[in-house]
Design goal:
CATH architecture: Alpha-Beta Barrel
CATH topology: TIM Barrel
Largest sheet: 3 strands, parallel
Distance between the termini: 29 Å
Helix content: 25-40%
Strand content: 5-15%
Number of domains: 1
Strand order of the largest sheet: 1-2-3
Number of strands: 3
Number of helices: 8
Order of helices and strands: HEHHHEHEHHH
Radius of gyration: 16 Å
Structural class: mainly alpha
Oligomer: single chain
Length: about 180
Amino acid sequence: MTLQVSPKGLGWFQDARFGMFIHWGLYSIIGKQEWVMHTDAIPVDDYEKLVPQFNPTKFNADKWASIAADAGQKYIVITSRHHDGFSMYDTSLSPYKVTNTPFKRDPLRELAMPVHAAISNSVFMSHCWIGTTRLTAFEQKVEWLGAIMWNSYMGRFANCVRSMGKWAASGLTATGRPTP
């Protein structure tokens, strides 16, 4: 599978220039970065003890979108599943997800509409990491070399987007308008 950005899409991105990139997940509980399992050599079984602690009660999608718009940002990129394999959205691909925490909500679904409403010509994008279970990038010891790995990634990415539902997939269309 070979994907290329359209000249129109590339032009928009180059003109937009200013956006918000959000890396947020279980690692936020311990105040570290998304590679903490690797850098601190945390075993998966120990890291998974963070799941029942994840409850970001102050999360407010409308406020996040408003802050981005007030700052003049033109788009938001958020990682929906990062290197730890934890999904920050409700998915049927894995039980290792935000809706199985005390928070029980889908923050990406909650962000989709306010982001689109607050940011003119917005694009709401999410990155799906390669794991389809609790397996992490560290456990898989993935080396990103060659087309075989890229094709494997793109297949898993497509499954991830499908599992997010219409609201996420619409963010990948030409309109950039999320579907409620």
